[in-house]
Amino acid sequence: MATRTQRAGVAEARESEPARAAPAIRLAGLWREFGDRVVLEDVDAELARGETLVVIGPNGAGKTTLLRILATLLRPTGGDVSVLGARLPREAWRARGRIGYLGHDPLLYRDLTVAENLRFHARLHGVESSDARIGALLDRVGMSRRAGELARNLSAGMAQRVAACRAVLHDPELLLLDEPRAHLDPQAGELLDLLIGPAEERTRVVVTHDFRAALSGAWRVLALGHGGAVAYEGPAAGLSVAEAEAIYAGSPR
């Protein structure tokens, strides 16, 4: 196995490759700690543009931490991270406007209406014909009639729908989704199609506990065990349900 120093040297050599030839995401020896606690440990992974990576693992395995690092919201403690050809954290500015992020917090301004929240986000990203784009997205997720409602009055499920619109409003190259099914009712098919449906051609990283659904899809899977170490990284077909269950059942550190 290559050492962290060796992986760093390879990453430096690849830095001169044209951006379009680079994968959407490249992780080499990524680790993150909070105080004395290691949350991610020597994570290696690579994702080509247009692919979907599903991240699974038990609570405390570092899944949300990984997503926040990719979203440029959190700095890695060590290792090499490249997102859309930008080296993080020093080139985070090159990637931020090209990423859509849906986390546990919908990131809506409570005292703005649904439409005002989305217009504000559209202005930040220079979205042209934003009203038409906003209207189409709200209609797609069944929130058109709530466009004038204050965000603070929305249920958790409604806020999730608006947050999904915000995440894709600027047509990002990379979509980062942390438990996108959270708070949604069984009839939320339109929203899920918007985020992870096959008709949308973009690169995605999806954190989920529904590993059975993940393993049945034609996606790549990154399985993190307790302590944030990589238990599996590769095609979904290469990991069985029994093996995924064993990863979840492993003893916490």
**Total beta strand runs:** 10
Briefly note the CATH topology name: Rossmann fold
Mean pLDDT level? 86
Strand order of the largest sheet: 6-7-8-3-9-10
The CATH superfamily is P-loop containing nucleotide triphosphate hydrolases
Q: Tell me, what is the CATH class?
A: Alpha Beta
- Kindly report how far apart the N and C termini lie: 23 Å
Shape: globular
- The helical percent reads 25-40%
Largest sheet: 6 strands, mixed
What proportion strand?
15-25%
Estimate nothing, just give the exact number of structural domains.
1
Q: In the CATH hierarchy, what is the architecture at level 2?
A: 3-Layer(aba) Sandwich
Total of helices: 9
What Rg, in angstroms, do the CA atoms define? 18 Å
Low-pLDDT stretches: 1-19
Secondary structure class reads: alpha/beta
- SSE sequence, one letter per element: HEEEHEEHEHHHEHEHEEH
Structure notes:
The strands form 2 sheets. A 6-stranded mixed sheet has the order 6-7-8-3-9-10, sandwiched between helices. A 4-stranded antiparallel sheet has the order 2-1-4-5. It has a single domain (4-249), classed as P-loop containing nucleotide triphosphate hydrolases (Rossmann fold). Helix 7 links the parallel strand 7 and strand 8. The protein is of the alpha/beta class and 253 residues long. The protein is built from 9 helices and 10 strands.
